[in-house]
Design a protein that fits this description.
The protein has 368 residues and is mostly helical. It has 15 helices and 6 strands. The relative contact order is 0.17.
């Protein structure tokens, strides 16, 4: 997903869940900030490097792809963008490929429940981070947050399916250019016949198609024995939006527990047609439509996302005060989430995320 859903749609979901305007803006801000918090920014802020929730393209190009390098990549991308659906999935094959297969992202898994519960009784940055992870389980399903040709590759059999049932072959290109849905032209990563190439990370081989709410497409993943798989983004994004509302109501304390497979119906009543119209509209950026919907709900102006908004507060704070700043709370939430996911992957006897923590205090906190 992109800024349109992670920021503007998350604002709408937060407001519908019962948060006020200012709270909703903050939750939305930190949902988007997950896509901005990379190592270079953390160095600039003199913040803990282990709080990184994404990697810049140049950082990835410089990354090692030996076991230690893959563990660092996997720990970030599986924790925040490609949360595994089932770490104990059954499949015939070698242990090497089984480990990667078990990292395939999908919604309504046990790790999602743990992610939402981890944000309970915390703060708004923690809620925002959890909403980013939750939303991406729907958009990024069928791809994995670890480099893998066998899991993440696509081939020439890739078609968009239109509402009337007609199909059109998608043409991928390898250049920096705006995607053109009307012509069926989309950019993706360059094919590399190397299982661990960073070009085979996440949905790079499918370009931004998983990020577009309007798109229904089908392709032949190798892990699916080359059987046609249909990805219905409009349906998935609609569920993601309602599940965010449900999860945020739980985080607010309005409902006693969070269970997977449940999606809010009450809060969206009367808004269904408008929400579905935004989701199904053929556009590569739905920010304006989500913003307009949010402003119609609250009667307040939804500000543009400003990356630098909380940086001065964090840098000016004394060392023992930084944890209480907005960014400080986000960094703590990021480390908790990363440790939780890495711990669960480690416990499943999968080495791809490495040791789940190197700090005794973290181990104690995660076991409590």
């Amino acid at each position: 997903m992109q800024l349109d859903f992670h920021y503007y749609a998350t604002y709408c979901a937060s407001y519908l869940a019962g948060f006020d305007h200012n709270e909703s803006v903050r939750i939305a801000y930190f949902a988007q900030f997950v896509d901005e918090c990379h190592a270079a920014l953390l160095r600039k802020l003199n913040a803990p490097g282990e709080a990184a929730t994404t990697q810049l393209q140049m950082e990835l190009l410089d990354s090692r792809t030996d076991l230690l390098g893959l563990q660092n990549i996997t720990k970030i991308w599986s924790s925040f963008h490609f949360l595994p659906a089932d770490l104990y999935a059954k499949r015939r094959g070698t242990r090497f490929y089984l480990n990667k297969y078990r990292l395939i992202c999908g919604p309504d898994g046990e790790l999602l429940k743990k992610t939402v519960e981890l944000a309970k009784n915390k703060d708004l940055p923690s809620a925002g981070l959890a909403m980013h992870v939750l939303a991406d389980t729907w958009a990024h399903r069928y791809f994995a947050g670890t480099p893998s040709l066998v899991i993440n590759n696509t081939d020439q059999h890739f078609f968009e399916i239109f509402p009337d049932g007609t199909q059109k072959k998608i043409a991928f290109r390898h250049k920096t250019a705006t995607d053109d849905p009307e012509k069926g032209l989309y950019s993706n990563s360059i094919f590399q016949n190397n299982e661990n190439s960073i070009m085979n990370l996440g949905h790079g081989r499918a370009g931004h198609l998983p990020d577009y709410s309007f798109c229904v497409y089908k392709y032949l993943p190798a892990w699916g024995d080359y059987m046609e798989l249909v990805k219905d983004n409009p349906s998935d994004y609609w569920k993601a939006f309602r599940q965010m509302i449900y999860a945020l109501k739980y985080i607010r304390g309005d409902i006693p527990g969070f269970e997977t497979g449940l999606y809010d119906e009450e809060a969206v009543r009367g808004h269904e047609d408008r929400i579905e119209a935004i989701i199904r509209k053929r556009q590569v950026d739905a920010s304006d439509d989500w913003r307009a919907f949010g402003e119609s709900l609250s009667g307040e102006r939804v500000p543009d996302f400003d990356l630098g908004l909380y940086q001065e507060e964090y840098m000016a704070a004394l060392k023992d005060e930084k944890a209480g700043t907005m960014l400080g709370m986000f960094f703590d939430a990021a480390i908790r989430q990363k440790n939780m996911v890495a711990r669960e992957i480690f416990i499943s006897k999968n080495p791809l995320a490495g040791i789940f923590s190197t700090k005794l205090s973290d181990l104690i906190a995660m076991s409590s």
